[in-house]
Structures are given as C-alpha cells and as structure tokens.
C-alpha cells in the first residue's frame, strides 16, 4: 500500500542536549530538508524545567548571528523544512509517540537527537517505507529469541549471524502515523506505558509490538519489518543507555515483561521472525547472509549479547 503523500515528517526525541538537538535540526530540516522529502520537523520537548527555544534559533549562533554566510543561507532557506516544537506536559519516553495535531503526512520518521541518517539513506528509507507502509522500516535491526521463560534481546551481530529479524528500533525508523494513535490510546495497556516510565527504556520495543500485533492477522511482506542499509552516525553512542553494562539484560527483561502483559490480555506474543536477507531493502546478489552490512560501523562490535 503506497502513501498518498509525497513526503514525510521527522519527529526528533530530545532531552537536555541543546547542541546535539541544534545539529540534528540543521541536518534533517535544512541539509536534507524538502529535497529529501522532509516536509515538517517536530521536536518532542520533555524538559519541564526549561522553555523550548524558538524555531529560528536553531539556525543562529550563540550571539544571534546566522550560522551560514548570506549566499548559502538563501539557498538553504528554500530547502528548509518547517519546524514545530511540541512542549510536553510530562517527562516521558511515551511522549514521542503521542498523536501529532495537524500532521499532514502518513509517513513519520522517528529519530533520536544523536542519530544522523545521511540524506540519500533517508530518501532510500522513505522509498522502502512507501512500499511497506504498515511496517516498521529503519536502520537498526534487532532479533528476539525465546529461551525458556525469558525472551532474549539480540543486537545486530547476532541478528546478522542468524539471518533473522523481528524488531526495528525507533531510534531511526519510518512508521505510519496511525501507530501513534494505537500506542497512545486506551487499548494499549497502561501497564506497558507505566513500565516504560518506570524504567525509562523500552518504548521502542513497545512500539514494535504494537505494529506486529496490529498486522498479525494480515501478515505478508508489506507488513514485515524492513531493514534499510544506509549510512548512519550515532553521535551519542558512548554516552547513551545502550552502552551501559546492564543494557542487554534490561532489554531482555523488557521483552519478557511486556510479552507477559500481551499474554495476560489473551493476545499472545506478537513478535515473529522474518529472514533478514529477505527483508533488507538493498538486495545483494546472490543473497547470502554475510552480504548484509550494518548502517553504523559500531553495530559490528561484539557485546555481551554475542555470548548469550
């Protein structure tokens, strides 16, 4: 099913990193901007202690001067996407998935403020999403594995070696705007949203489960998760929660606990495996598993997950 819109909105999740956020806005709203299909950039502002800046301030220096010379500025302004700052009433990771008032696109690109997808890769991802608009389409593939009563969370390396995929992380992914309503409405168990708030983690897994659960009765290639090979930089790699010593166990716990809530509701575990090589947007001939490459160099490095 192909979207009727020619572009998409970017939703940037941020918290207390003004310089990182400014860099992200310049990249997605101006460097990529309209020529890459970015119609609108929304900023999820959850910092209750600070008022959000003005939209124009992202393109100004500390003294209020424009960051570019005059000729470059005129060119960039024409390509610049509209920016809207959404001030939240609660500091919650669930806020990134709230429905957006006045949204004019079906396609939404969710991204963390420290992740930069280059403009060509961003366009390629949007083309992939238009052909798989019921799916999560993005640059960070993950896999889950049942192991007794636990559901183990696996990162890229294990996913690639097993040639399996079941989750696309929303730190850089396209999804249909309808899933924002499905995540936020009363049918999505409050226990899951409370779990996300209590642990300040796992909203991306909760969204992956929403998408899988809503499409499980009409499964086909259009609704399977899609991995897009691209060029992605993670500027917060060494300062984020994903580098913490307990990260992989916490993600395993998250998968296990949220799945239990689905079971209690009588829905069953919504996540399912697909073949990574089949669900990679850039196909390689002859299609061996080892031909798939990560979008980010650091995805190659073994971690505690590799030995699980």
What is the helix/strand order?
A: EHEHEEEHEEEHEEEHHHEEHE
> Residue-averaged pLDDT, rounded?
88
Structural class: alpha/beta
Largest pleated sheet = 7 strands, mixed
Which spans of ≥5 residues are poorly predicted at pLDDT below 50? none
The best one-word shape is: globular
Helix content: 25-40%
Round the Cα radius of gyration to an integer and report it: 19 Å
Q: What is the CA–CA distance across the termini?
A: 38 Å
- The total of helices stands at 8
Structural account:
Helix content is 30%, strand content 19%. It is built from 8 helices and 14 strands. The strands form 4 sheets. The chain has a 7-stranded mixed beta sheet, with helices on both faces. The termini are far apart. The model has no long low-confidence stretch (mean pLDDT 88).
């Amino acid at each position: 099913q192909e979207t009727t819109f020619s572009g998409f909105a970017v939703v940037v999740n941020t918290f207390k990193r003004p310089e990182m956020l400014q860099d992200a806005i310049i990249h997605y709203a101006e460097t990529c901007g309209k020529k890459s299909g970015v119609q609108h950039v929304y900023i999820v502002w959850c910092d209750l202690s600070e008022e959000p800046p003005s939209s124009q301030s992202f393109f100004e220096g500390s003294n209020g001067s424009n960051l570019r010379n005059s000729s470059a500025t005129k060119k960039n302004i024409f390509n610049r996407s509209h920016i809207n700052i959404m001030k939240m009433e609660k500091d919650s990771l669930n806020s990134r998935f709230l429905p957006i008032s006045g949204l004019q696109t079906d396609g939404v690109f969710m991204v963390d403020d420290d992740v930069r997808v280059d403009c060509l890769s961003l366009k390629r991802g949007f083309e992939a999403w238009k052909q798989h608009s019921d799916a999560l389409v993005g640059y960070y593939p993950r896999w889950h594995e049942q192991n007794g009563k636990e559901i183990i969370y696996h990162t890229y390396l294990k996913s690639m070696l097993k040639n399996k995929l079941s989750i696309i992380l929303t730190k850089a992914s396209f999804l249909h705007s309808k899933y924002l309503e499905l995540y936020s409405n009363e049918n999505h168990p409050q226990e899951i949203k409370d779990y996300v708030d209590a642990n300040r983690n796992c909203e991306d897994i909760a969204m992956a489960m929403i998408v899988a659960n809503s499409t499980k009765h009409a499964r086909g290639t259009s609704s399977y998760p899609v991995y897009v090979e691209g060029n992605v930089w993670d500027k917060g790699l060494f300062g984020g929660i994903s580098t913490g010593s307990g990260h992989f166990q916490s993600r395993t716990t998250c998968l296990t606990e949220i799945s239990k809530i689905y079971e209690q509701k009588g829905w069953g575990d919504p996540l399912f495996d697909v073949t990574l090589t089949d669900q990679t947007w850039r196909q390689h001939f002859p299609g061996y598993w080892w031909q798939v490459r990560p979008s980010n160099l650091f995805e190659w490095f073994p971690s505690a997950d590799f030995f699980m």
